[in-house]
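Reply to dn_fold:

You asked what the input looked like. This is it:
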Amino acid sequence: PVAYTDRWGGFWTVTRHEDIVRVASDNETFISSIQNLVPMSPRSGVPRRPLQVDPPEHAHFRRAMNPYFEVERVAVLEPTLRQLAARYLDPLIAKGRGDAMDEFARRLPIRAICAFLQTSEQDAEWIQARSGKYVEAISADDRATASALSGELDQYARRFVAKRRTAPLDPNLDIVTGMFAATIEGKPIDDEIIAGFVRGLIVAADRSTSNGIGSSIMHLAMHAGLQNQLRREPARIPDAIEEFVRLYAPSHATARTATRDVEIGGQTIHTGEVVAMVFLSGNRDPEVFARPDEFMLDRKPNPHLGFGHGVHKCGGQSLARLQLRIALEELLARTTSFEMDGTISFTTWPEYGPKTLPIRLTS
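and this is what came back:
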């Protein structure tokens, strides 16, 4: 259904798969440039491209960045990601128990992004200390804290771009150096816009991928049969990942703003009203998915919305899938079993995933 809530200034929720696809596909009626999250994230500071921009400008920016996220491009990171996974898994397994979120799922993605951006381990530590608190502040509608942390992340992104401008890398391998040479409608991309891209990448990729890894580990810890099947058949892990992303959409919802009065699901949404697309609900729509609340390794097709839909579908999904695959392959290969070892706490909006994930592991 389509329902309205007056929370966070008021917004509509769209929960059916068909309606979410409609909103995500109609870029004239539903735009991102006014509000793309509920509650609204701070809008001061660096411009957020491409998340907070609409076509046709959006297409120009995605055209510049998309080649760097092709499957073949991100595959070069696999050896580095396996080393990182081993670095965090081995101590956890040696202890026999621990918090898989804090000790593994949150540590791998931000270091993967820093490897992708070719920056330092120190930067990864700095970013991780702030990006999580930033998203939590947005979820709690703590505007003061969110704005302060947003400003710190903006300044980091500006410093990063200025440093890369001074010492550029190979534009065929480095996305930021490549953007220095790219143009939009014949004009170079401003460094402030590139900084906005960097800032958006480190926050979104860090939190969303962490949630995806954590939710996948949680499900496997609760289902020993599936865990053992994937150990025997690691080639099925990519199929499992698609179903994990469907069941536990790491980004619970994103938003658009209506530019005209429009009817969806029997409700009239007026010009200027905010619409939240609830991917987690759309991914369990019984009109689209048989036995929608069950994990089905053989689910084909699987038109889930876990990475979004339309022009704003996650540009880094190939890197996210790579991280998820390596995280699960390395965890399963290094253990004979793992199970839950306590109570899980959850983040539920606007992202979705475990805050804590206590598990017991046997090597």
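The longest helix spans residues 191-222.
Hope that clears it up.
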